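note to self: dont lose this again. the chain is below, predicted strucutre after it. 166 aa total, dont forget to put it in the shared folder this time
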Amino acid sequence: MQIIIGNIVALIASLIMVYSGLIKQKKKIIYTQTIQIGLYILSNLILGGITGAIINALSFVRNVLCYKDKLGKKEKVIITILAVVLSLAFNNLGIIGILPLISTIVYLWLMSIKDVVKFKYLTIFTMILWLVYDVYIKSYSSAVFDFMNIIANIVTIIRLKNNENK
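---
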């Protein structure tokens, strides 16, 4: 029953994630991702993905700060330190439990990219890490949608590049 409930919550979050992959304005992407992250915190807790829940909680704070244009170097350093310390302290999944940490640190330090296409590439990279993690914790609905989000971002990149060429 726990796996079913966790996957239902993840499914809702995943639908929001795919929608964010189709958005072309960075501020709207960040806003939508923040809602999605809140639901993933709950899903990860239900499914026993402690490092995923920790990283998502820190990502939630990161996105709120970014949305309000208050995510500076000091805040990034604090979030990075918290992410590393908490992930290593509570990791119950070995190397797989470190994937959310890698994802969030890379995303945190590169999310200030102004170029939407490069931002989409960043999202694709981090989604690949989450795809592996989600399969491992049996968040199958998340995994399917991680993959769909990767595809949605690739499609959006192609559309953006085609618009540039016109």
